[in-house]
Amino acid sequence: MIIPFDCDSVRVTSPYGNRTLNGSKQFHGGYDLVGVGSYDICAAVGGTVVHSRIITDKSNPTWQWGNYVCIKGTDGRLYYYCHMKSRAVVAGQTVKAGDKLGIMGNTGYSFGAHLHFEVREGSKAINPESVLGIPNKAGTYFLPIKTDYERAIEVLHKKGVINTPEYWLKREKIDPYFAQLIGRIAEKI
Ligand SMILES: [Zn+2]
Fold this sequence. Notes:
- It is a single chain.
- The protein is α+β, with helices and mostly antiparallel strands.
- The chain has helices at residues 129-132, 148-158, 165-169, 176-188; strands at residues 9-14, 17-21, 24-28, 30-35, 40-42, 47-53, 67-73, 78-84, 86-87, 94-95, 100-103, 115-121, 124-126, 139-142.
- It is built from 4 helices and 14 strands.
- The strands form 3 sheets. Strands 1, 4, 6, 7, 8, 10, 12, 13 and 14 form a 9-stranded antiparallel sheet that branches. The chain has a 3-stranded antiparallel sheet with strand order 5-11-9, with no helix packed on it.
- A hairpin with a 4-residue loop joins strand 7 (67-73) and strand 8 (78-84).
- The protein is elongated.
């Protein structure tokens, strides 16, 4: 499971699909999410920032997203992070999964602070469930409890020391002293 916030738990306040908002039926192209414990929004997937902006001209429907960031993922999909209070990246920048993109907010067509998270393949908004592993249903979801070694690898990955956490996670069983060393390095940096 991937949480696009800097925390271990997230609330889905409005899932993907048909819904009624303020009395009118609409198709909701993404998830509305609230980080539990942190409002710092992080990249779910690495890639390149295509847009980091706010559109105030209301004849352009994109104004509804408020402060938003669009990332072209390394998987070729487009990732939208909308309604932010502030943005921490600029167009053209390369980001890794987990990098901070901004702070959750209530800008644009929004009624309470939340993150509208949308994934597109071409121009089609797809169900984010397959990408995030978070069920398409309102509720609060938690990351599985991690071991000390898994946390240490995560720290080293976030700091850019290692690029392929999947590879290093498999190495824990090889040598217990190796796992302890990784833990000590993660504490020091
Ligand atoms: Zn939404």
